[in-house]
Structure to design on (1346 residues):
């Protein structure tokens, strides 16, 4: 028996080793996987410009338009959602203008790099306006908005193609006159909106204008209970008549609770002018969420709101006191700043979105 | 011949030489050979008498199974019994004073087990998020267990509804249940079937020789060289539901004349399967054991080493929506193609060797004792994708499914048909859109490749992490059995366990990137402004001024020890008077455990080594905003201590030699398991409130009949289990954090009947067999729940309270409908909630043919009363009330109902045959075909997702997320060919 045993054992062990190393037991492969090849960059030829696309909206009677046919735009990515200040959107820009591309995914900067050429096959997409700002998305079947997010990956893959990564386009420097000119033209006729721009000489605080009835520094809308009617004034708190000691770009949930706990909002009132009683305070605490904040700056006499999301990584970063100046004075007395980011239009006013805090430079007083 | 025998006897056994002078030997042996399963006599069995491995006499049994061999001189002999269709049996016999020794019944085990035991492997097959161990302790000598163990495995039947933790599994006298989870540890030796085949099993609350046991049986695997069947055995197995191929080779020497025995075994399990893509095995098994006895077999020592290193790809549950879209209930979302090859993201990578030394001392026939030292060690890793500030890569993530875009119910506010159609297009054409319906590895690599930092290095957005649970488990066990008198046997023992288990993660694969950072990305969402707070290793960060940069193989995330110590003493007295016998036993034990954190996490750093607070950049990390000290991630937690006990009484009455009536009563206080004791062990030392021992009372009454080829057992049982705790962890992407639900005070009741029979039919060798298990396993309490988040020490508040009773856990109301079919507020009846994930009704009826090495078995099965595992969140007032804080009958009924699975019918068939060649070699095969009806709609388990749809339009109610299910494979086969020398 022994004479069988040793050879048999050896043969079997060899067989086992042999079989286990040739892992072709389809369909599973279990050895070292090769790194996949890089995705192939698509180079499409745009058939229309972004300006021409926006023109189609106007020609449609300034109503949302589902684009049908061979319409391909091409533009460079000029925003990143890495800091979290932009969410589910990227702006692309070509020679003729820029547009807000609504893609319903988070962390878009992983797939769409700053400066990268994107080609959008607009066939089946919808162009619409969000309070005056042109957006490219898909049809919102509920009719609540003019466009909905391009969301199912299948739709993204069918319409958005990634090209080569190139340096960012030259950043346009805009003046007060440019902004007022663009406001006059509106969201779809001016090529300024949505572009990556630098605005020089902004000062904190904006005097009353056709948009505001008094000297403004901040604006925030907080819902007492977000599960209840958001339109009811009794469920709203506006922080806009003074700063309430808020000195951060926005408020994360943690920061909001910190302000609330420190009594910053004790003197605030509801939309229907009731003081914040204990019940309201309890509800605010229970339903606490990140708060998006607009800071009013002025470019000359033109107000420019810098709007920052409560989900931005820099939301809780204090604005340099040099910029803020005296919070009680009725004048923009802080240091002026130069900002770089996305200029957009919201209900006929200029709104500015920082991509990150590198977009803020303080000028020496 | 006789001279030769005498000569060798003279030469070797000197003490016997005195007897030689007395002339022709008059001694001998006699006995009856019977079948182990039905106690029928076996005629024509060949009996060989060996002395020092030399055959000295032989005979065959008569028609009544009896045999007599005479003419043996005094001495020790090995008696070998061989019979067609039965396993070889060996017994020792000592002839002294020239008498013919009466050996009484020598039992033989049928070859049937060859097929059956291979099947037990299946239990260990997939890692599907919950425990996969056999839940029927396999026992060839119990008719219920042999049929149920064989036929019910594929539907995850659990005997009497008990969990695997309640089942005691011993190896060489040492309790092997996992120190952390209590799970029975079959995976440690799966693939070494031949080496671990020898085992002893008791059922229910019966008492074993190896330990007092609990209420769900005890099995002891012998594991030593002499227990492995003699000779060389090899087998090749192929199988369509687990892995393509298993090879196994085993050699056991048997005991030689110097008292040595050794055994070795090696196996390999390789390949994928026909049913679940991505599930594969690449596992090996190694076993070696040497054993030596001396001093007339009074002393025996065995040394054994075994290990089963390997990788296994795991399966994942998905929602019915996904299965229906793909058109396959076996869809597995864990894998995707990389370079055209299937790659699974969830792979279990294990190498956990066991080594033990066992010493047996048998000074006399009336006393035996053994001592074992056993050490389990090695590594156990489980890979998973981890990502930082990137999209969820799982293909079946709910936001990728059609239902996320459009739902009939307008409350969901999912109204976009265009997106719905697009998502559906992809999911219904999996061959065209492989990268959308499976994991898209190519994209993960691409994202990493393009994630360049300021230095041009690639910071990983996606990695494959490997979560480790590495045990160091040292055990001591002492057992003795003392036959003090014919009517009294005392058994007892002591055991102790020291377990140190390290939990940590390593980077398994950077997926093309250069590095990863050791930060808590969940904490970062909430505390982005405090860099210190998001550190997983705060001390490194403070020392080096930067976050640890991770490369392949580096530890990250969390790192802590679970420290468990336990010991127990047990004693059992067996009394026998005539046909009546009784056992009375008890066990006293002590267990303690604690967590020992090895890193200081930024969220919960505790205090500095000098006792002061961690204040970094003006933020006090050690305290909350009210100045209270936060729980700590570092150092030793409070020690949880438990005094445990067991007491058992067993009464047994034998009627006429064939019928037995017996009853068992037991009461138990067991320590909770470590994994149910800490709120969030990944992040801190916080312990569940109200942690206490689990109290179980159990009684069973049994009737058993064995004889004339008939074999039957009927059992009724009743068990209550109280004060259990449970921790469920789920990633909550609304809170963007890991959420832990701690339940305490869970009570259960298990009652039911078991019946198994095998009876001969009018056709010889054909028997009719069947089992019925009908139970009612229910929850009997409404437990208390505390929800915590990994990010914060403050428990989540539900309508203002942090600790809430779950009012709809044990039952839920069903409301009357009015004449129009609308729900009213009148309660029609209250529906109890059941223990999930096992059919509470399981039946089987079949035919078994067993003749001349042929084995054929065909069975029909019916299962019903299986229920889905519940999540506690849906049974709270918070969930039924919804955002408007008003609980309507519609909401209560919708939210709290427990899902019942559809009944299932299955047909299984097996055939086997073996041949003896020249009486020395054996060649055989077995073919097992399961689920002949190819039923692909049998749910075997699943779970409710612990989250709700709260972004509804009306804001009046919440909706559930779809549950996830596991399904049984369709028709599958296993073919085993084996040989033996």
């Amino acid at each position: 028996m022994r004479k069988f045993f040793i050879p048999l054992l050896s043969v079997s062990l060899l067989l086992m080793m042999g079989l286990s190393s040739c892992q072709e037991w389809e369909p599973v492969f279990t050895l070292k996987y090769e790194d996949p090849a890089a995705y192939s960059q698509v180079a499409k030829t745009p058939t229309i410009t972004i300006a021409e696309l926006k023109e189609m909206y106007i020609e449609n009677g300034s109503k949302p338009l589902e684009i049908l046919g061979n319409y391909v735009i091409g533009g460079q990515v000029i925003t990143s959602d890495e800091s979290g200040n932009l969410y589910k959107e990227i702006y692309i820009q070509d020679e003729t203008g820029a547009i807000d591309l609504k893609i319903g995914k988070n962390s878009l900067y992983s797939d769409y790099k700053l400066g990268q050429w994107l080609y959008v096959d607009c066939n089946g997409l919808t162009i619409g306006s969000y309070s005056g700002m042109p957006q490219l998305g898909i049809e919102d079947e509920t009719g609540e908005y003019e466009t909905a997010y391009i969301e199912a990956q299948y739709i993204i893959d069918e319409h958005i193609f990634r090209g080569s990564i190139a340096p960012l386009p030259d950043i346009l420097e805009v003046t007060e006159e440019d902004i007022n000119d663009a406001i006059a033209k509106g969201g779809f006729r001016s090529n300024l909106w949505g572009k990556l721009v630098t605005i020089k000489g902004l000062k904190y605080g904006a005097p009353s204008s056709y948009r505001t009835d008094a000297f403004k520094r901040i604006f925030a809308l907080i819902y007492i209970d977000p599960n209840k009617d958001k339109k009811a004034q009794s469920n709203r708190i506006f922080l806009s008549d003074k700063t309430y000691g808020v000195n951060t770009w926005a408020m994360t949930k943690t920061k909001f609770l910190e302000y609330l706990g420190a009594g910053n909002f004790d003197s605030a009132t509801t939309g229907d002018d009731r003081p914040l009683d204990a019940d309201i305070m309890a509800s605010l605490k229970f339903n606490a969420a990140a708060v998006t904040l607009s800071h009013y700056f002025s470019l000359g006499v033109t107000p420019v709101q810098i709007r920052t999301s409560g989900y931005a990584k820099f939301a809780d970063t204090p604005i340099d006191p040099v910029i803020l100046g005296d919070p009680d004075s009725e004048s923009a007395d802080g240091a002026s700043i130069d900002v770089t980011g996305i200029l957009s239009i919201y209900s006929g006013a200029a709104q500015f979105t920082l991509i990150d805090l590198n977009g803020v430079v303080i000028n020496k007083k | 011949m006789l001279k030769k025998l005498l000569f060798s006897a003279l030469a070797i056994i000197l003490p016997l030489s005195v007897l030689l002078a007395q002339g022709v030997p008059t001694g001998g042996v006699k006995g009856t050979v019977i079948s182990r399963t039905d106690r029928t006599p076996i005629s024509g069995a060949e009996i060989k008498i060996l002395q020092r491995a030399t055959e000295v006499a032989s005979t065959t049994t008569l028609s009544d199974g009896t045999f007599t061999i005479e003419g043996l001189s005094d001495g020790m002999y090995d008696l070998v019994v061989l019979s067609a269709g039965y396993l070889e049996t060996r017994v020792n016999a000592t002839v002294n004073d020239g008498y013919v020794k009466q050996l009484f019944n020598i039992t033989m085990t049928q070859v049937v087990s060859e097929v059956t035991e291979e099947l037990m492997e299946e239990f260990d097959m997939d890692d599907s998020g919950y425990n996969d161990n056999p839940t029927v302790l396999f026992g060839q000598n119990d008719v219920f267990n042999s049929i149920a163990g064989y036929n019910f495995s594929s539907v995850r039947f659990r005997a009497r509804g008990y969990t695997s933790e309640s089942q005691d599994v011993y190896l060489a006298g040492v309790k092997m249940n996992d120190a952390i989870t209590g799970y029975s540890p079959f995976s440690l030796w799966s693939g070494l079937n031949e080496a671990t085949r020898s085992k002893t099993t008791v059922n229910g609350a019966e008492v074993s020789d190896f330990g007092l046991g609990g209420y769900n049986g005890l099995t002891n695997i012998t594991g030593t060289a002499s227990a492995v069947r003699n000779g060389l055995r090899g087998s090749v197995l192929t199988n369509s539901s687990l892995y393509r191929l298993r090879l196994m080779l085993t050699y056991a020497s048997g005991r030689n004349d110097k008292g040595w025995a050794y055994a070795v075994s090696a196996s390999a399990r390789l390949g994928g399967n026909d049913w679940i893509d991505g599930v594969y095995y690449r596992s090996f098994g190694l076993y070696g054991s040497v054993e030596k006895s001396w001093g007339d077999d009074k002393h025996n020592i065995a040394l054994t080493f075994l290990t089963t290193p390997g990788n296994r790809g795991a399966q994942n549950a998905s929602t019915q929506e996904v299965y229906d879209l793909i058109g396959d209930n076996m869809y597995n979302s864990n894998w995707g193609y990389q370079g055209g090859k299937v790659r699974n993201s969830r792979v279990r990578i294990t190498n956990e060797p066991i080594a033990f030394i066992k010493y047996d001392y048998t000074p006399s026939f009336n006393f035996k004792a053994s001592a074992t030292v056993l050490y389990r060690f090695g590594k156990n890793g489980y890979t998973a994708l981890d990502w930082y500030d990137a999209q969820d890569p799982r293909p079946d993530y709910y936001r990728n499914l059609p239902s996320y875009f459009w739902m009939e119910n307008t409350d969901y506010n999912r109204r976009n048909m265009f997106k719905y159609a697009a998502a559906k297009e992809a999911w219904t054409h999996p061959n065209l859109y492989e990268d959308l319906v499976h994991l898209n590895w190519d994209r993960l690599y691409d994202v990493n490749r393009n994630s360049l930092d300021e230095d041009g290095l690639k910071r990983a957005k996606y990695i494959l992490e490997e979560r480790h649970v590495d045990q160091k488990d040292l055990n001591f066990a002492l057992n003795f059995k003392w036959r003090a008198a014919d009517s009294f046997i005392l058994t007892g023992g002591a055991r102790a366990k020291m377990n140190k288990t390290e939990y940590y993660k390593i980077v398994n694969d950077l997926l093309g990137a250069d590095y990863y950072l050791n930060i808590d990305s969940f904490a970062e969402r909430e505390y982005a402004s405090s860099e210190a707070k998001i550190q997983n290793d705060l001390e490194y960060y403070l020392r080096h001024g930067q976050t640890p940069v991770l490369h392949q193989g580096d530890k990250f995330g969390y790192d802590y020890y679970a420290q468990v110590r336990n010991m127990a003493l047990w004693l059992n007295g067996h009394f026998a008077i005539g046909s009546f016998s009784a056992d009375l036993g008890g066990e006293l034990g002590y267990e303690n455990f604690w967590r020992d954190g090895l890193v200081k996490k930024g969220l919960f750093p505790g205090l500095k080594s000098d006792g002061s607070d961690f204040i970094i950049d003006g933020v006090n990390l050690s305290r909350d905003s009210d100045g209270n000290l936060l729980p700590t991630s570092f150092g030793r937690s409070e020690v949880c201590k438990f005094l445990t006990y067991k007491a058992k009484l067993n009464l047994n009455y034998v009627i006429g030699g064939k019928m037995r009536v017996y009853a068992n009563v037991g009461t138990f206080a067991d320590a909770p398991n470590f994994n149910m004791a800490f709120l969030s062990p990944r992040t801190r030392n916080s312990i569940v409130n109200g942690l206490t021992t689990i109290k179980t009372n159990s009684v069973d009454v049994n009737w058993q009949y064995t004889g004339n080829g008939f074999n039957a057992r009927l059992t009724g049982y009743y068990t209550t289990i109280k004060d259990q705790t449970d921790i469920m962890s789920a990633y909550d992407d609304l809170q963007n954090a890991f959420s832990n639900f701690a339940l305490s005070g869970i009570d259960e009741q298990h009652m039911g009947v078991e019946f198994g029979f095998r009876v001969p039919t009018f056709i010889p060798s054909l028997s009719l067999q069947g089992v019925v298990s009908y139970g009612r396993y229910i929850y009997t309490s409404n437990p208390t729940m505390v929800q915590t988040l990994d990010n914060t020490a403050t428990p989540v508040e539900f309508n203002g309270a942090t600790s809430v009773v779950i009012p709809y856990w044990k039952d839920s109301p069903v409301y009357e409908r009015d004449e129009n079919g609308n729900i009213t507020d009148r309660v029609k009846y209250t529906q109890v909630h059941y223990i999930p994930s096992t059919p509470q009704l399981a039946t089987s009826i079949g035919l078994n043919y067993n003749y001349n090495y042929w084995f054929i078995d065909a069975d029909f099965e019916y299962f019903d009363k299986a229920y889905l595992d519940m999540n506690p969140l849906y049974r709270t007032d918070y969930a039924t009330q919804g955002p408007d804080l008003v609980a309507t009958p519609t909401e209560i009924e919708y939210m709290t109902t427990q899902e019942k699975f559809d009944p299932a019918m299955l047909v299984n068939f097996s055939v086997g045959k073996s041949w003896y060649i020249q009486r020395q070699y054996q060649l055989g095969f077995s073919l097992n075909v399961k689920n002949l009806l190819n039923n692909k709609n049998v749910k075997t388990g699943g779970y409710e997702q612990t989250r709700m749809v709260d972004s509804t339009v009306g804001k009046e109610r919440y909706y559930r997320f779809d549950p996830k299910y596991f399904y049984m494979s369709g028709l599958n086969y296993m073919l085993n060919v084996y040989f033996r020398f």
